[in-house]
Fold each of these.
Amino acid sequence: MISLTDAQLNAWLINFIWPLTRILGLIMVAPVFGHRSVPRSVKIGLGVFIALIIAPTLPPMPDIGLGSWYGLLILVQQLLIGIGIGFIMRIIFTAVDAAGEIIGLQMGLGFASFFDPQSAGQTQVLARFLNMLALLVFMAVNAHLLMLGVLVESFQILPVSPQPLASAGFFNVASYGSSVFSIGLQLALPLIAILLMTNLALGILTRSAPQLNIFAIGFPITLGVGLIMLDLTLPYFAPQFENMIQNGLKDMIMVLNTLRAGGT
Protein backbone atom coordinates (compact mmCIF):
# COMPACT_ATOMS: atom_id res chain seq x y z
CA MET A 1 0.00 0.00 0.00
CA ILE A 2 1.33 3.42 -1.01
CA SER A 3 1.17 6.09 1.68
CA LEU A 4 1.79 9.78 1.14
CA THR A 5 2.61 12.35 3.75
CA ASP A 6 1.21 15.86 3.68
CA ALA A 7 4.67 17.22 2.85
CA GLN A 8 5.05 14.91 -0.15
CA LEU A 9 1.58 15.70 -1.44
CA ASN A 10 2.17 19.43 -1.04
CA ALA A 11 5.51 19.17 -2.90
CA TRP A 12 3.89 17.36 -5.80
CA LEU A 13 1.03 19.84 -6.00
CA ILE A 14 3.18 22.98 -5.93
CA ASN A 15 5.49 21.54 -8.60
CA PHE A 16 2.46 21.24 -10.86
CA ILE A 17 -0.15 23.84 -9.85
CA TRP A 18 2.05 26.95 -9.81
CA PRO A 19 3.63 26.36 -13.25
CA LEU A 20 0.21 25.38 -14.61
CA THR A 21 -1.23 28.71 -13.43
CA ARG A 22 1.40 30.70 -15.33
CA ILE A 23 0.89 28.55 -18.44
CA LEU A 24 -2.89 28.95 -18.34
CA GLY A 25 -2.50 32.71 -17.87
CA LEU A 26 -0.58 32.93 -21.14
CA ILE A 27 -2.92 30.55 -22.99
CA MET A 28 -5.89 32.62 -21.86
CA VAL A 29 -4.76 35.82 -23.63
CA ALA A 30 -2.18 34.73 -26.23
CA PRO A 31 -3.03 34.67 -29.95
CA VAL A 32 -4.18 31.36 -31.44
CA PHE A 33 -4.36 29.61 -28.05
CA GLY A 34 -6.67 32.18 -26.49
CA HIS A 35 -9.11 32.42 -29.40
CA ARG A 36 -12.75 32.02 -28.42
CA SER A 37 -13.23 29.28 -31.02
CA VAL A 38 -10.82 27.06 -29.05
CA PRO A 39 -12.83 25.08 -26.44
CA ARG A 40 -11.91 25.64 -22.81
CA SER A 41 -11.29 21.93 -22.35
CA VAL A 42 -8.65 22.08 -25.10
CA LYS A 43 -6.97 25.10 -23.48
CA ILE A 44 -6.88 23.44 -20.07
CA GLY A 45 -5.70 20.13 -21.55
CA LEU A 46 -2.90 21.88 -23.43
CA GLY A 47 -1.85 23.71 -20.26
CA VAL A 48 -1.81 20.49 -18.25
CA PHE A 49 0.17 18.73 -20.99
CA ILE A 50 2.82 21.49 -21.09
CA ALA A 51 3.01 21.60 -17.28
CA LEU A 52 3.59 17.85 -17.06
CA ILE A 53 6.40 18.08 -19.60
CA ILE A 54 8.30 21.00 -18.11
CA ALA A 55 7.66 20.32 -14.40
CA PRO A 56 10.71 18.02 -13.96
CA THR A 57 13.03 20.65 -15.53
CA LEU A 58 11.96 23.60 -13.37
CA PRO A 59 14.02 25.11 -10.54
CA PRO A 60 13.12 24.00 -6.99
CA MET A 61 9.86 25.43 -5.73
CA PRO A 62 9.62 27.33 -2.43
CA ASP A 63 8.60 25.16 0.51
CA ILE A 64 5.29 26.91 1.12
CA GLY A 65 1.89 25.36 1.65
CA LEU A 66 -0.34 25.61 -1.40
CA GLY A 67 -3.35 26.62 0.68
CA SER A 68 -1.52 29.20 2.81
CA TRP A 69 -1.71 32.94 2.26
CA TYR A 70 1.77 32.96 0.74
CA GLY A 71 0.76 30.05 -1.48
CA LEU A 72 -2.27 31.94 -2.76
CA LEU A 73 -0.09 35.02 -3.32
CA ILE A 74 2.29 32.98 -5.45
CA LEU A 75 -0.70 31.59 -7.37
CA VAL A 76 -1.90 35.11 -8.21
CA GLN A 77 1.63 36.17 -9.15
CA GLN A 78 1.99 33.28 -11.60
CA LEU A 79 -1.34 34.16 -13.20
CA LEU A 80 -0.29 37.79 -13.61
CA ILE A 81 3.05 36.79 -15.13
CA GLY A 82 1.36 34.55 -17.70
CA ILE A 83 -1.21 37.20 -18.60
CA GLY A 84 1.50 39.89 -18.83
CA ILE A 85 3.73 38.09 -21.30
CA GLY A 86 0.77 36.84 -23.33
CA PHE A 87 -0.61 40.37 -23.48
CA ILE A 88 2.54 41.53 -25.28
CA MET A 89 1.86 39.26 -28.24
CA ARG A 90 -1.85 40.07 -28.18
CA ILE A 91 -1.00 43.77 -28.61
CA ILE A 92 0.61 43.01 -31.99
CA PHE A 93 -2.65 41.58 -33.34
CA THR A 94 -4.57 44.50 -31.88
CA ALA A 95 -2.26 46.85 -33.78
CA VAL A 96 -3.00 44.94 -37.00
CA ASP A 97 -6.73 45.40 -36.31
CA ALA A 98 -6.11 49.12 -35.76
CA ALA A 99 -4.27 49.32 -39.11
CA GLY A 100 -7.22 47.66 -40.84
CA GLU A 101 -9.65 50.07 -39.20
CA ILE A 102 -7.61 53.09 -40.31
CA ILE A 103 -7.23 51.83 -43.89
CA GLY A 104 -10.91 50.93 -44.10
CA LEU A 105 -11.98 54.39 -42.97
CA GLN A 106 -9.69 56.03 -45.53
CA MET A 107 -10.96 53.78 -48.33
CA GLY A 108 -14.60 54.31 -47.46
CA LEU A 109 -15.14 50.77 -46.17
CA GLY A 110 -16.06 51.89 -42.69
CA PHE A 111 -19.65 50.79 -43.27
CA ALA A 112 -18.59 47.21 -44.19
CA SER A 113 -18.54 45.57 -40.77
CA PHE A 114 -19.79 42.39 -39.14
CA PHE A 115 -19.85 40.75 -35.74
CA ASP A 116 -16.48 39.41 -34.59
CA PRO A 117 -16.81 36.63 -31.97
CA GLN A 118 -13.24 37.21 -30.74
CA SER A 119 -13.78 40.85 -29.76
CA ALA A 120 -17.54 40.40 -29.17
CA GLY A 121 -18.25 43.53 -31.22
CA GLN A 122 -18.50 44.97 -34.72
CA THR A 123 -15.29 44.71 -36.76
CA GLN A 124 -14.53 46.10 -40.19
CA VAL A 125 -14.09 43.58 -42.98
CA LEU A 126 -10.63 44.91 -43.87
CA ALA A 127 -9.46 44.71 -40.25
CA ARG A 128 -10.69 41.12 -40.07
CA PHE A 129 -8.90 40.29 -43.34
CA LEU A 130 -5.58 41.68 -42.09
CA ASN A 131 -6.05 39.88 -38.77
CA MET A 132 -6.55 36.55 -40.54
CA LEU A 133 -3.49 37.24 -42.71
CA ALA A 134 -1.46 38.05 -39.59
CA LEU A 135 -2.68 34.83 -37.98
CA LEU A 136 -1.50 32.81 -40.99
CA VAL A 137 1.92 34.48 -40.88
CA PHE A 138 2.06 33.87 -37.13
CA MET A 139 1.54 30.15 -37.66
CA ALA A 140 3.80 29.97 -40.74
CA VAL A 141 6.85 31.30 -38.87
CA ASN A 142 6.15 29.00 -35.88
CA ALA A 143 5.68 32.01 -33.63
CA HIS A 144 3.26 30.01 -31.48
CA LEU A 145 6.10 27.57 -30.69
CA LEU A 146 8.55 30.41 -30.10
CA MET A 147 6.06 31.94 -27.68
CA LEU A 148 5.83 28.66 -25.77
CA GLY A 149 9.65 28.59 -25.74
CA VAL A 150 9.68 32.01 -24.07
CA LEU A 151 7.12 30.71 -21.58
CA VAL A 152 9.37 27.79 -20.65
CA GLU A 153 12.38 30.11 -20.44
CA SER A 154 10.40 32.42 -18.15
CA PHE A 155 10.71 29.88 -15.32
CA GLN A 156 14.49 30.30 -15.51
CA ILE A 157 14.39 34.09 -15.80
CA LEU A 158 11.66 34.56 -13.19
CA PRO A 159 11.43 31.44 -11.02
CA VAL A 160 8.42 30.74 -8.85
CA SER A 161 9.08 32.68 -5.67
CA PRO A 162 7.16 34.42 -2.86
CA GLN A 163 9.10 37.62 -3.57
CA PRO A 164 6.86 40.47 -4.80
CA LEU A 165 6.96 41.41 -8.47
CA ALA A 166 8.50 44.72 -9.47
CA SER A 167 6.07 47.43 -10.50
CA ALA A 168 8.39 48.38 -13.37
CA GLY A 169 7.39 45.21 -15.20
CA PHE A 170 3.67 46.05 -15.11
CA PHE A 171 4.49 49.61 -16.16
CA ASN A 172 6.32 48.23 -19.20
CA VAL A 173 3.32 46.07 -20.10
CA ALA A 174 1.00 49.10 -19.83
CA SER A 175 3.35 51.31 -21.84
CA TYR A 176 3.59 48.65 -24.54
CA GLY A 177 -0.19 48.66 -24.77
CA SER A 178 -0.09 52.39 -25.50
CA SER A 179 1.84 51.67 -28.72
CA VAL A 180 -1.17 50.04 -30.43
CA PHE A 181 -2.08 53.16 -32.38
CA SER A 182 1.49 54.01 -33.40
CA ILE A 183 2.21 50.47 -34.65
CA GLY A 184 -1.11 50.33 -36.51
CA LEU A 185 -0.44 53.71 -38.07
CA GLN A 186 2.98 52.58 -39.27
CA LEU A 187 1.41 49.54 -40.94
CA ALA A 188 -1.28 51.65 -42.61
CA LEU A 189 0.96 54.59 -43.55
CA PRO A 190 1.70 53.57 -47.19
CA LEU A 191 -1.98 53.27 -48.05
CA ILE A 192 -2.84 56.41 -46.07
CA ALA A 193 -0.30 58.39 -48.12
CA ILE A 194 -1.66 57.10 -51.44
CA LEU A 195 -5.27 57.70 -50.44
CA LEU A 196 -4.38 61.20 -49.20
CA MET A 197 -2.87 62.05 -52.60
CA THR A 198 -5.97 60.60 -54.26
CA ASN A 199 -8.25 62.80 -52.15
CA LEU A 200 -6.09 65.84 -52.90
CA ALA A 201 -6.33 65.08 -56.62
CA LEU A 202 -10.09 64.77 -56.34
CA GLY A 203 -10.23 68.07 -54.49
CA ILE A 204 -8.25 69.83 -57.22
CA LEU A 205 -10.49 68.22 -59.84
CA THR A 206 -13.58 69.50 -58.03
CA ARG A 207 -12.20 73.04 -57.93
CA SER A 208 -11.33 72.99 -61.61
CA ALA A 209 -14.61 71.38 -62.69
CA PRO A 210 -17.33 72.29 -60.15
CA GLN A 211 -20.02 70.67 -62.29
CA LEU A 212 -18.62 67.20 -61.49
CA ASN A 213 -20.46 65.27 -58.79
CA ILE A 214 -17.56 64.46 -56.47
CA PHE A 215 -19.71 62.15 -54.35
CA ALA A 216 -20.58 60.07 -57.40
CA ILE A 217 -17.03 59.63 -58.71
CA GLY A 218 -14.98 60.10 -55.57
CA PHE A 219 -16.10 56.97 -53.73
CA PRO A 220 -15.43 54.42 -56.51
CA ILE A 221 -12.09 56.07 -57.33
CA THR A 222 -10.97 56.05 -53.70
CA LEU A 223 -12.16 52.49 -53.21
CA GLY A 224 -10.52 51.28 -56.42
CA VAL A 225 -7.19 52.97 -55.68
CA GLY A 226 -7.26 51.59 -52.14
CA LEU A 227 -7.90 48.01 -53.30
CA ILE A 228 -5.16 48.24 -55.95
CA MET A 229 -2.62 49.60 -53.47
CA LEU A 230 -3.65 47.02 -50.89
CA ASP A 231 -2.97 44.28 -53.43
CA LEU A 232 0.44 45.81 -54.23
CA THR A 233 1.49 46.22 -50.58
CA LEU A 234 0.32 42.83 -49.27
CA PRO A 235 3.63 41.08 -50.20
CA TYR A 236 5.42 43.49 -47.85
CA PHE A 237 3.05 42.79 -44.97
CA ALA A 238 4.50 39.39 -44.03
CA PRO A 239 8.11 40.62 -43.46
CA GLN A 240 6.86 43.58 -41.42
CA PHE A 241 4.64 41.39 -39.28
CA GLU A 242 7.42 38.84 -38.80
CA ASN A 243 9.67 41.65 -37.58
CA MET A 244 6.91 42.73 -35.18
CA ILE A 245 6.73 39.17 -33.84
CA GLN A 246 10.48 39.09 -33.22
CA ASN A 247 10.27 42.41 -31.38
CA GLY A 248 7.32 41.07 -29.39
CA LEU A 249 9.31 38.02 -28.26
CA LYS A 250 12.17 40.30 -27.18
CA ASP A 251 9.72 42.50 -25.28
CA MET A 252 8.35 39.42 -23.50
CA ILE A 253 11.88 38.65 -22.25
CA MET A 254 12.32 42.30 -21.25
CA VAL A 255 9.10 42.27 -19.24
CA LEU A 256 10.19 39.11 -17.44
CA ASN A 257 13.50 40.73 -16.51
CA THR A 258 11.81 43.87 -15.18
CA LEU A 259 9.24 41.88 -13.23
CA ARG A 260 11.94 40.52 -10.98
CA ALA A 261 12.03 42.15 -7.55
CA GLY A 262 13.86 45.45 -7.78
CA GLY A 263 13.95 45.19 -11.59
CA THR A 264 17.26 43.32 -11.46
Amino acid sequence: MRIWAYGDDINTDMLFPGKYTYTCAKPDEIKPHLLEDLDPEFAKAVQPGDIIIAGKNFGCGSSREQPVVGLKAVGIEAIVARSYARIFYRAAINQGLLLIECPDAVAAYQPDMAVSLDLKQSTIKVGDQTFKFPTLPPEILAIRDAGGLLEYTRARLRAKAGAK
Protein backbone atom coordinates (compact mmCIF):
# COMPACT_ATOMS: atom_id res chain seq x y z
CA MET A 1 0.00 0.00 0.00
CA ARG A 2 1.20 3.45 -0.89
CA ILE A 3 0.14 6.77 0.62
CA TRP A 4 -0.47 9.70 -1.69
CA ALA A 5 -0.44 13.02 0.19
CA TYR A 6 -1.86 16.28 -1.14
CA GLY A 7 -2.82 19.67 0.30
CA ASP A 8 -5.94 21.79 0.55
CA ASP A 9 -8.52 22.56 -2.13
CA ILE A 10 -7.68 19.71 -4.50
CA ASN A 11 -10.35 20.31 -7.11
CA THR A 12 -11.95 18.02 -9.64
CA ASP A 13 -9.86 19.44 -12.50
CA MET A 14 -6.71 18.50 -10.57
CA LEU A 15 -8.10 15.01 -10.05
CA PHE A 16 -9.21 14.60 -13.66
CA PRO A 17 -8.57 17.40 -16.20
CA GLY A 18 -11.76 18.92 -17.57
CA LYS A 19 -10.40 18.82 -21.12
CA TYR A 20 -11.22 15.09 -21.15
CA THR A 21 -14.79 15.48 -19.91
CA TYR A 22 -16.42 14.63 -23.24
CA THR A 23 -13.87 12.15 -24.55
CA CYS A 24 -13.35 9.88 -21.51
CA ALA A 25 -16.35 8.25 -19.86
CA LYS A 26 -15.34 4.67 -19.11
CA PRO A 27 -13.06 3.82 -16.18
CA ASP A 28 -10.27 2.52 -18.43
CA GLU A 29 -10.35 5.81 -20.37
CA ILE A 30 -10.30 7.87 -17.17
CA LYS A 31 -7.54 6.06 -15.26
CA PRO A 32 -4.53 7.21 -17.35
CA HIS A 33 -5.46 10.87 -16.78
CA LEU A 34 -5.98 10.83 -13.02
CA LEU A 35 -4.06 13.66 -11.33
CA GLU A 36 -1.96 14.16 -14.49
CA ASP A 37 -1.51 17.90 -13.88
CA LEU A 38 -1.07 17.62 -10.10
CA ASP A 39 1.02 14.45 -9.84
CA PRO A 40 2.10 12.96 -13.18
CA GLU A 41 3.37 9.78 -11.49
CA PHE A 42 0.04 8.94 -9.85
CA ALA A 43 -1.72 7.19 -12.75
CA LYS A 44 1.42 5.16 -13.55
CA ALA A 45 2.17 4.07 -9.98
CA VAL A 46 -1.14 3.89 -8.07
CA GLN A 47 -2.13 0.40 -6.95
CA PRO A 48 -5.25 -1.15 -5.44
CA GLY A 49 -5.30 -0.57 -1.69
CA ASP A 50 -3.49 2.78 -1.82
CA ILE A 51 -4.74 5.64 0.37
CA ILE A 52 -4.93 9.35 -0.38
CA ILE A 53 -4.37 11.80 2.47
CA ALA A 54 -5.41 15.39 1.80
CA GLY A 55 -6.24 18.70 3.39
CA LYS A 56 -9.50 20.59 3.48
CA ASN A 57 -12.15 20.89 0.77
CA PHE A 58 -11.00 17.83 -1.19
CA GLY A 59 -12.92 17.43 -4.45
CA CYS A 60 -14.12 21.01 -4.78
CA GLY A 61 -15.02 22.23 -8.24
CA SER A 62 -17.42 20.76 -10.73
CA SER A 63 -19.93 17.97 -10.32
CA ARG A 64 -18.26 15.68 -12.88
CA GLU A 65 -18.15 12.08 -11.76
CA GLN A 66 -15.00 11.06 -13.67
CA PRO A 67 -12.62 11.85 -10.78
CA VAL A 68 -14.52 9.57 -8.40
CA VAL A 69 -15.07 6.87 -11.01
CA GLY A 70 -11.36 6.89 -11.80
CA LEU A 71 -10.18 6.80 -8.19
CA LYS A 72 -12.53 3.92 -7.49
CA ALA A 73 -11.43 2.10 -10.64
CA VAL A 74 -7.73 2.22 -9.73
CA GLY A 75 -8.57 0.71 -6.34
CA ILE A 76 -8.03 3.59 -3.92
CA GLU A 77 -8.95 2.05 -0.55
CA ALA A 78 -9.91 5.35 1.05
CA ILE A 79 -9.34 9.06 1.03
CA VAL A 80 -8.58 10.56 4.44
CA ALA A 81 -9.00 14.35 4.47
CA ARG A 82 -9.66 17.30 6.74
CA SER A 83 -12.91 17.94 4.84
CA TYR A 84 -14.65 17.29 1.52
CA ALA A 85 -16.63 19.32 -0.96
CA ARG A 86 -20.24 18.15 -0.59
CA ILE A 87 -20.78 17.32 -4.26
CA PHE A 88 -17.63 15.16 -4.32
CA TYR A 89 -18.73 13.49 -1.08
CA ARG A 90 -22.07 12.53 -2.62
CA ALA A 91 -20.45 11.27 -5.83
CA ALA A 92 -18.04 9.16 -3.77
CA ILE A 93 -20.92 7.53 -1.89
CA ASN A 94 -22.66 6.81 -5.20
CA GLN A 95 -19.55 5.04 -6.49
CA GLY A 96 -18.71 3.28 -3.22
CA LEU A 97 -15.45 5.20 -2.67
CA LEU A 98 -14.64 5.37 1.03
CA LEU A 99 -14.12 8.88 2.45
CA ILE A 100 -12.92 9.44 6.00
CA GLU A 101 -12.84 12.83 7.63
CA CYS A 102 -10.10 12.94 10.27
CA PRO A 103 -8.26 16.28 10.50
CA ASP A 104 -5.98 15.11 13.34
CA ALA A 105 -4.71 12.14 11.33
CA VAL A 106 -4.05 14.39 8.34
CA ALA A 107 -2.13 16.83 10.54
CA ALA A 108 -0.03 14.02 12.03
CA TYR A 109 0.93 12.46 8.70
CA GLN A 110 4.49 12.94 7.47
CA PRO A 111 5.96 11.45 4.28
CA ASP A 112 6.84 7.76 4.55
CA MET A 113 4.75 7.19 7.70
CA ALA A 114 2.77 3.96 7.81
CA VAL A 115 -1.00 4.37 7.71
CA SER A 116 -3.65 1.77 8.48
CA LEU A 117 -7.42 1.87 8.81
CA ASP A 118 -9.67 -0.08 11.13
CA LEU A 119 -13.24 0.49 10.05
CA LYS A 120 -14.71 -1.67 12.83
CA GLN A 121 -13.01 0.45 15.49
CA SER A 122 -13.32 3.70 13.48
CA THR A 123 -9.63 4.40 13.86
CA ILE A 124 -6.75 5.35 11.66
CA LYS A 125 -3.18 4.71 12.70
CA VAL A 126 -0.59 7.17 11.44
CA GLY A 127 2.93 6.22 12.45
CA ASP A 128 2.63 5.30 16.13
CA GLN A 129 -0.46 7.45 16.80
CA THR A 130 -4.05 6.27 16.58
CA PHE A 131 -6.92 8.62 15.80
CA LYS A 132 -10.65 8.08 16.10
CA PHE A 133 -12.97 9.16 13.29
CA PRO A 134 -16.78 9.25 13.26
CA THR A 135 -18.27 5.80 12.84
CA LEU A 136 -19.36 5.27 9.26
CA PRO A 137 -23.07 4.52 8.88
CA PRO A 138 -23.79 0.88 8.01
CA GLU A 139 -25.57 2.01 4.83
CA ILE A 140 -22.41 3.75 3.59
CA LEU A 141 -20.38 0.61 4.22
CA ALA A 142 -23.03 -1.54 2.52
CA ILE A 143 -22.96 0.72 -0.54
CA ARG A 144 -19.17 0.49 -0.62
CA ASP A 145 -19.26 -3.30 -0.20
CA ALA A 146 -21.81 -3.60 -3.04
CA GLY A 147 -19.57 -1.58 -5.38
CA GLY A 148 -21.67 1.58 -5.39
CA LEU A 149 -25.21 2.84 -4.97
CA LEU A 150 -26.49 1.36 -8.20
CA GLU A 151 -25.34 -2.17 -7.34
CA TYR A 152 -26.54 -1.75 -3.76
CA THR A 153 -30.00 -0.73 -4.98
CA ARG A 154 -30.14 -3.57 -7.51
CA ALA A 155 -29.23 -6.12 -4.83
CA ARG A 156 -31.90 -4.78 -2.49
CA LEU A 157 -34.53 -4.92 -5.23
CA ARG A 158 -33.55 -8.49 -6.11
CA ALA A 159 -33.72 -9.46 -2.44
CA LYS A 160 -37.11 -7.80 -2.07
CA ALA A 161 -38.43 -9.53 -5.21
CA GLY A 162 -37.10 -12.89 -3.98
CA ALA A 163 -38.81 -12.44 -0.60
CA LYS A 164 -42.26 -12.28 -2.19
